[in-house]
Write a structure and sequence with these properties.
Layout: H1 2-38, H2 49-77, H3 83-87, E1 96-102, H4 111-126, E2 133-139, H5 148-153, E3 159-161, H6 175-194, E4 198-203, E5 206-208, H7 212-223, H8 227-230, E6 234-236, H9 251-275, H10 283-300, H11 302-306, E7 317-320, E8 328-332, H12 333-344, H13 354-364, E9 369-373, E10 377-379
Parallel strand pairs: 1-2, 1-4, 2-3, 6-9
Antiparallel strand pairs: 4-8, 5-10, 6-8, 7-9
Length: 395
């Protein structure tokens, strides 16, 4: 009888000490350690917006303005190629055409120069693997000659312009419809000018990441041949970091989040049991660490976990698309022709911009589209061509 009482007391002590350990771990993690480490992480729930947003936004603007100046000097110092090289008058069909769609905005940031110089550098570094890639500038400024940065770039890249000088403005064409029409024009001209196998439509404030071509090569060779990806309408190469959290209406995110808990729950509980010299963990302990790891990953930010996938192109994720934003969109040529027909039949307005229009086609036309994670471009344009803002912020 006494022996049983001692056993029961021992079990209760072990259980109660475990509860104390786990409570202390939770308090220290979420109340002390994570806030101290993550208070400057822009896309974390621990981010101290009141402390850091204004100085970080100002620092970003100053750094980006310097990058614009560096891009300007890059092209000013570059030797102008001969006419045939600049026009890109090749007879063969490119594998990838990178079309940079641009309008005139804040001149001191030189957004389009930043994008073009980055692509030029990366293509040079890529070498023979990227010989089948071409760059096309698509100038959609109402008066094309007023776009000063494009005048400089026209010596180095082929260019098409949507010239509407002297035309009477159509009152039915609001700024969102104009943006859609510009997009349709650039997509159509890309097909007509080069007839490439893939078209990457990049907005003029989407700077490519250094690994973009190695990842795209992997996707072309190994992933896009799969039946469920072969006929996709488009592939997004960017989704805003602030919208990448697990706690999201997207079913795939929830499944990924649960999978993370199912993986880390048993691992962390085994480590905990081993550290305390105890037998195999109970299911309650596994459940605790599963919830603990899920909560920590969400609060720190899924964006920062996605960054680990940059270690190798094969680790990049291709998942069903979400609605927002079109800084970088990859279209297979047959899909680009379908998208052209679809978009020409839609009218955009406030609340139904071109990104929403493209997303609506997936349901209306029975199409599929996907997003590549993590992002393959950085969105640097804090000054929008659609929405005027004299004091932009990172969030």
């Amino acid at each position: 009888m006494l022996h049983q009482a001692w056993q029961l007391c021992g079990r209760w002590c072990r259980w109660s000490s475990s509860v104390v350990h786990l409570i202390m771990l939770t308090v220290m993690t979420f109340g002390v350690v994570a806030p101290l480490i993550c208070h400057r992480l822009l896309h974390s729930y621990f981010y101290l917006r009141r402390w850091h947003l204004n100085p970080m936004s100002q620092e970003f603007l100053e750094h980006n303005q310097q990058e614009g100046q560096d891009a300007l000097h890059y092209f000013e110092k570059m030797q102008i190629p001969n006419a045939s090289e600049a026009s890109g008058s090749d007879a063969f069909q490119p594998l990838l055409l990178i079309t940079i769609i641009t309008v005139q905005r804040r001149y001191d940031f030189h957004y389009v120069l930043q994008v073009a110089s980055r692509f030029h550098r990366l293509l040079q570094e890529c070498g023979a693997r990227c010989r089948s890639h071409r760059v096309l500038l698509c100038n959609v400024e109402s008066d094309p000659s007023s776009h000063q940065d494009v005048r400089l770039l026209s010596s180095f890249f082929p260019m098409v312009s949507r010239d509407r000088t002297g035309e009477n403005p159509d009152p039915r064409v609001n700024q969102f419809e104009k943006e859609k029409q510009d997009y349709v024009f650039c997509l159509e001209q890309s097909l007509l000018s080069y007839n490439p196998q893939y078209i990457l439509i990049v907005e003029d404030d989407a700077v490519p990441e250094k690994e973009i071509f190695s990842v795209l090569q992997h996707l072309f060779l190994a992933r896009f041949s799969k039946p469920y990806l072969r006929d996709a309408l488009y592939f997004k190469l960017y989704h805003p970091e602030r919208l990448q959290h697990y706690f999201n209406p997207e079913p795939m995110r929830i499944l990924e989040w649960l999978g993370l808990g199912m993986l880390l729950g048993p691992v962390l509980s085994c480590v905990y049991s081993w550290a305390l010299g105890r037998p195999s963990p109970s299911w309650l302990l596994v459940l605790f660490f599963a919830l603990y790891s899920m909560a920590l990953s969400e609060l720190v930010g899924r964006h920062y976990l996605l960054e680990l996938r940059r270690l190798h192109p094969a680790l990049y994720n291709v998942v069903p698309v979400t609605e927002c934003c079109t800084p970088a969109m990859l279209f297979p040529a047959p899909s680009a022709r379908r998208a052209l027909g679809y978009l020409q039949g839609l009218h955009c307005q406030q609340g139904f911009a071109k990104d929403t229009a493209l997303y609506s086609l997936l349901w209306a036309k029975g199409e599929n589209a996907y997003v590549v994670e993590p992002n393959l471009v950085r969105h640097v344009g804090m000054y929008s061509s659609l929405r005027l803002n004299s004091s932009p912020k990172l969030l």
